[in-house]
Amino acid sequence: MYSKFKNKVKNKIKTIGKRILGMEQSKEIISTEKSGRVKSTVLARRLLDYDVISFDIFDTLILRTLSKPTDVFMSVGQKLGMLNYTTMRREMEFRLRDEKEAETGSREVTFEEIYEEMEKYCGVDAELGMQEEFQAELKYCIANPYMQEVFNLLKSYGKTIIIVSDMYFSKKWMTKLLSSCGYEGYDELFISCEHGFSKRSGKLYQIVSEKYLNGRSVIHVGDNPTVDVEMAEKQGWKSFFYEDIHTRGKKYRPSLMSSSVGSAYRAVVNIKMQSGAFESEKEKDLAYQYGYINGGILILGYVQWIHRQAKEENMDKVLFIARDGWIMKQVYDYLYDDIPSEYVYLSRNAALKMTCDYNRYELFRQFVERRVDSEKPYTIRDVLISMELGSILPLLEKDGIRTEDVVDTKEKAEKVKEMLLDCWEHVSAVYESSAEAFHQYMEPILAGCHHVAAVDTGWRGTCPAAMKYMVEKKWKEDCRVTGMMMGSCKYKFNNTIPLIGDGSIRTYLFSPQHNDHLARFHYNKNLIHNTCIEFITTAPHPSVTSFVKGADGNYEIRFEYPEQENYEMTENIHQGVLDFVKDYRKYHGDSPLFWEIPALDAYWPIRFAMERRFETVIKKAFGNYVYNKYVGGLEGKRDMDTFLDMCRKEGV
C-alpha cells in the first residue's frame, strides 16, 4: 500500500516538474475571458422594482486588492515582525468558532474575541494586533466600482438600502470600513457577530425580516451561491447572484506565482477583467488585454529591477535602447525621477555595422549567411545594398564579379564574405563614418555621465555589448556601460556567458546561469516565445538602419520601412501595460511585501499565455502582425511575413 502511494507521489512530482520545465503540453483554455456582467445601470433598474435592496459586503460592495481574504494577514505579520502569522491568525479564529459552536450552537465570534485568543495563545498584544489588522483592511479594501455605481444610482432614486454581512467585525468597525470605501447613506447595517446568527444559517435573514422589513419586498445582492442566494430565497427573499471576481477569473490566472505578489497580481487583474466596471471597446480589445494581463507585470518587474540596479551602482543615467526600450522608458519615467533616462535610437543591425571590426563574425552571419534561406532570392547586389555597401559594387564589377548572381548556397555566401574581406578597408571606412555620426548623437546623452545602464529586451546582447565597446574602448569615454536584459540567448550560442560572468551584462528573468527552468521553457520554442514578448516591448516606429553624417556635418538617423499595420496593436498593448502599472501602483505602491516583483512572478503570466492562451489570445490577437524577416531590407523589396506564417513554419 505504501509503495503504491509512494509511486503515485513520485509520478505527481515528475508531472509538476515537467510542467515547470515546459516539457509537458498544458491544456489550452478555449474560452475567451470577459466579465459577462449586465451593465450596472441595467442591474440598478432591475433592483428598483423592490422596496428594500440588501447588499453583502465583501466581494460585493467591497473588493480586496488581494485574491484571498487571509492574505491581508501576511501584511499584519510583516508589521508585527512575526513568523507564520497567517497560520496562527486563521487557527485561532477557527478554534474559537469551534468552541463557540460547542457551547452555544452558533459559530459567530467577534474581532475582539479573536484577538483575546491571539494574545493568550500566540503572545500578540490584542490592541496592537487589532489596530494593525484593521489598518490593513482599510489599506487593501476598495469599493467595487461596478457595485458602487449601482449603489449610488439606487440612492439617487431614494431607495431603502440595507447591508447584511456575515463578519467578525462589529458595526463600529464595519461602518468605518464602508465609509473609507465611499459607502454612506444606507439605511441599516446588520452584522452576524452582533446578532449571534449568520446568513449561512438563515437566521440573520429571519431577524432582518422580523425586525426591519415589515412585509416590504426585498432583494439581496451577494457573491456566495449558498449564503447569499439559496439561504436568502429560503427565507422568502429574492436574490441577485454576483459571482465573485476571483471565482470567475481563476482559470485565466497562473497558479504558480508567489503567495504575496501572486495574490496582488490576481486581484488587480480580476478587478479590471471581472468586476463588470471596465467594459469599454478599448478594454475589450485583445491587444489591450494582453498588455494589461501579461505585459504589465513583466515590464513593471523589469523596470523595478533596472532602477534597483542603477541605484545600488550609483549610475548616472538609464539608456533604453530602441525599439524595445519604448514602453520600458514610459513606465520607468512614470515611476522614477531620481535617476534620469534617455531613449537611444539603435538597432542590432546598426550596432553590428558600427562595430564591424569587433563583430565581423556576427555581421556576416546577419547580413550574408541568413540571406541564403530567403524565400525571395538575394543577389550579391541585394546583399551589399542591404549592408549599405553599394559603393563597393563598382569595385567588384571592375574585377569581373557578376553582382546579379543569386546568393542561395552556403558556398556562394562564403564567396561574398571573401569579397568583403578583400576590400575590408573600404567596408571599415563606410561603417566608421556611421560610428562617428553615432558618437555625435551620443555625446550630449553621455555628457557628465560616469556610469550608465544600456537596457534591452535581449536576447544575444548585441546592442548593450556594442554600446559598451564603443563608449569604453572605441571612443575611450570616461564612462562605464553596464548592459541589462530581460533574458539572454539560448544555450547553443552561449555568447553572453562571459559578459554575464563579469557583470558587464545582467539579466532579470533568466540566463544560462540563473533561473534555468525558465530558460529551458522559453527556448523550447525560442522564436515564438521571443516574439510573444517583443509584441509587448516593440515601439510604434521603424527600426534604425544606420547613422550617417549629413551634408551640414550633423548626424542623421536612417530608418527601415515602418510596419504601420502593427502600430494600432502596439499602442493598445502599451496602453494596457501602462494602465496595469498605474493600477498596481495605486493599490500596492506603498507595500514592500507586494510591490517588488521577483523575476519568476514577472514571467509566469506571459508564460501562462504562451502555454494555455496561445490559440485563443495570442494567435487571435496577433495572427496578422507583420514583421520583416530580414531587417536591413532593400528599396522596393520587403521580406514580410505574419505571425501566423511564423507559427506555421515553426509547427505551432
From TrEMBL:
Keywords: Hydrolase. This is HAD-IA family hydrolase. GO terms for molecular function: hydrolase activity.
